[in-house]
Design a protein that fits this description.
Bound molecules: cytidine-5'-monophosphate
Organism: Catenuloplanes indicus
Mean pLDDT: 94
Enzyme class: transferase
Order of helices and strands: EHEHHEEEHHEHEHHEH
Number of helices: 9
Subcellular location: Cytoplasm
GO molecular function: ATP binding; dCMP kinase activity
Oligomer: single chain
InterPro entries: Cytidylate_kin, Cytidylate_kinase_dom, P-loop_NTPase
């Protein structure tokens, strides 16, 4: 099992998916899970500032997520939410929902069950090497400069670079400073800075690292 953590725009999703495909492994995007339950909370119309109400809604949701790296999908109560979870509204609120302890408990339990069933799997998120799977065979912390991360995200979303950089900084701050399971680098994680590194190079580097560990 490979844990890939790091901030938004570090290349985590692309690198993790490509790595899973190359290894013929499963792939789990835990950010998509937090985004999907955020979509459910917004749909329910409860105040996002009320952690108990948010947790109650999330406890009642049925969340399904695919683990085939070539065909990712996520559903909430049977509704496909792959498009909406990448939209501005979910992106604006996901870090608040992800900072609710009961929400994290529920999703971490679901993530551990998926990992236990999967065999070989690459899992990406913020707390995978530190909380979800501290016994991962390889822990990677992907990072990149704030400018490079904003540049990548704005290309993906056809959005303004400065506004994207401000939004990433806002989410990074919430994700790194929250009381429960903040984004931190595991002590035994290999740090890979992708600022000046292409996707292929990053994937090749991780494959080398895995080969040396088996
Ligand atoms: O990776 P992505 O940017 O899609 O994640 C969206 C949000 O979900 C993050 O900003 C973070 O607040 C939350 N998240 C988390 N723990 C994870 C994965 C994502 O708190 N393991």
């Amino acid at each position: 099992m490979v844990a890939v953590d790091g901030p938004s725009g570090s290349g985590k999703s692309t690198v993790s998916r490509r790595l899973a495909t190359a290894l013929d492994a499963r792939y789990l995007d835990t950010g998509a899970m937090y985004r999907a339950v955020t979509w459910g909370v917004i749909r329910a119309g409860v105040p996002l500032s009320d952690p108990a109400a948010v947790a109650a809604v999330v406890a009642g949701l049925s969340l399904e997520i695919g683990t085939d790296p070539s065909a990712p999908f996520v559903r909430v109560d049977g509704v496909s939410v792959d498009g909406p979870i990448r939209g501005a509204e979910v992106t604006a609120h996901v870090s608040a929902v992800a900072s609710v302890a009961a929400v994290r408990q529920q999703l971490v339990a679901q993530q551990r069950a998926i990992i236990a069933d999967a065999g070989r799997i690459v899992v990406e998120g913020r707390d995978i090497g530190t909380v979800v799977a501290p016994d991962a065979s390889l822990k990677v912390y992907l990072t990149a400069s704030a400018e490079a991360r904003a540049q990548r995200r704005s290309l993906e979303n056809a959005a303004d670079v400065a506004a994207t950089q401000a939004d990433l900084a806002r989410r990074d701050k919430i994700d790194s400073s929250r009381a429960v399971d903040p984004l931190t680098q595991a002590e035994d994680a290999v740090v890979l800075d992708t600022t000046a590194m292409g996707i292929d190079e990053a994937v090749a580097r991780l494959r080398e690292l895995l080969d040396t560990r088996v």
